[in-house]
Amino acid sequence: MSFSKLGLSKQIINAVSDEGYKNPTMIQAQSIPAILSGRDVISDAQTGTGKSAGFILPILEILSKSNRLRGNNTRSLILVPTRELADQVHQSVKKYSTYLPIKSEVVFGGVKINPQMLNLRGGVDILVATPGRLLDLYKKNSIKFTKLEVLVLDEADRMLDLGFIDQIKEILDLLPKNRQNLLFSATFSDEIRELGKSISNDPFEISVTPSNPKLETIEHYLYPLDQIQKTDALIYLFKKEKWKQALVFTSTKHGADKLVTDLIKKGISTAAIHGNKSQAARTKALADFKDGNVKILVATEIISRGIDINQLYKVVNFDLPRRAEGYIHRIGRTGRAGIRGTAISFVNADEFEMLQIIERLLQQLIPRRILEGFIPKVMLAESVLNTKPFKKKKPKKNKKI
Fold this sequence. Notes:
disordered C terminus; six-stranded parallel beta sheet; Rossmann fold; 14 helices; alpha/beta; seven-stranded parallel beta sheet
């Protein structure tokens, strides 16, 4: 199937073609016709499946049919959990709207609010926003929602994980009831699904995420290490195997900063990206990494989802994530677009319980390797695969929000 079969205009198809895409992904083939027909949509899809284009393209098609910009209104609102994802989604909106008279803007915290207020004057067709900054702008009378036609909650479960539920409820109360609702996420718990149904009208549900995640394009394995060995082990691997670049995940902001300091002392160009960094610092670190000027980017969970880094071959879990699903999202930064990648985890004895939970989620044991010269003093226990499926949480009663 080609994009031309999905009911998209020539201008949009040309923009998609400019980006090198010929045929829609599975999620796009299902979501685009549903959205164009006016249906509310609830969808889960793993990162790298083209989820963003799955809602951006039909929104552009809908909005291009008329031009009703008024005052400080927005016709479509896309809510996302992080600044990096907001910028990425907005860049996609701009690319796909190249041949359309569509005005779009992005707003998020960590930068001055006045320029964003100026950019919203006269209204926008599409606004990509993080919840906190959007509410700040609303309270300053810089944005209105009376003409809103489409609402998108992207990475909805991540927004709830980050504690945005109260802000989301506050935003939903400000929006017109007669609107199209689209919820997209890499994962969808029963709680999130019920939330989606509570704000949607007869939603069309799409799922392209397998119940047991398969990582066909990623070789992943672990090294048993003491915590104190991890930094030296990373340096050893980087230099011995001559890595071009690596994305390294730590569990804490302090741990990320300390690792950056230690690696720089060893002559490895390194930068950190986490919640305590200014937006300017985060943007520069990510840009320098994408440009190849930074060889190791150390990050917390903030970019474990939703950020595309082309040609990334190595991901390292310096610390295991606090949630098993985080393992999938982290290592999913590599092995994208048909490129094979490698994901390596450094696991100490204290992380054994989380390792077992991750392996249960994967329904496979993560292969173990011994790193020469790095035998841990406290050995990691042997895993036994638990094949019992996780019990589904009972969904909470629907509450209109």
